[in-house]
Amino acid sequence: MRKIHVFDNVSLDGFFTDEKADMSWAHKRDEEWNAFAAGNAGGNAELLFGRVTYEMMAAFWPTPQAAEMMPAVAAGMNGMPKTVFSRTLDTTSWQNTHLVKGDLVAEVTRMKQQPGPDMVILGSGSIVSQLTQARLIDEYQIVLCPIVLGKGRTLFETVDRKVRLALKNTRAFKNGNVVLWYEPA
Q1: Which of 23, 6, 7 is nearest to 149 (CA)?
Q2: 172-181 residue pLDDT tens
Q3: Which residues contact 64 (CB under 8 A, 6 or more apart)?
């Protein structure tokens, strides 16, 4: 069975995006962090996105600027298969992207049963929240970033019951980021 992993940045006060839906604060780069990001992007996975995150990613990763800034990550992001869940998009332009307009939980449940690589959700707080509520997430990689935003959106806005998690690993970086790996308890 395929697994679903979440990889998201979160501020010290618990937000994955600020009140204006900006996530640029989470991109504190240095050599150590870039090597970690490149290693993650080099894996064999299918990326899952909601419309907002998809449009943001599709506007950046296929560009020459992305290839110059982070060539290994850009190659991985562009080469991996991608599924975007949207009720409003009619087409997609980013290579290797499949559009799904149906029920998120039903489709992801079906996808988990199909052969293929594990799936990774980047950003897409609404999807993370819905799939957490449905207990379909197998692992959370949460990057705790050294910033306080004051206002924003949480990853778990629509979760209406406790979801206990078990800490499996941690890694601190010189840039102040700390990656926390959790699995459902």
Answers
A1: 23
A2: 999 999 999 9
A3: none
Domain ranges of the chain: 4-146+164-177
Q: Provide CB contacts within 8 A for 58, sequence distance 6+.
A: 92, 93, 94, 97
CB distance 94 to 58 below 8 Å: yes
Q: Phi, psi at residue 76, to the nearest 5°?
A: -65, -45
**What global pTM score does this model have?**
0.91
Q: Cα–Cα distance between 62 and 60 in angstroms, integer?
A: 6
> Is the pLDDT score of 138 beyond 70?
yes
For 32-78, the pLDDT digits (tens) are: 988 888 777 767 899 999 999 999 999 999 999 999 988 888 898 99
- 4-146+164-177 topology per CATH: Dihydrofolate Reductase, subunit A (3.40.430)
Rounded to 5°, the CA angle 184-158-125 comes to 75
Token digits of residue 70:
């982070």
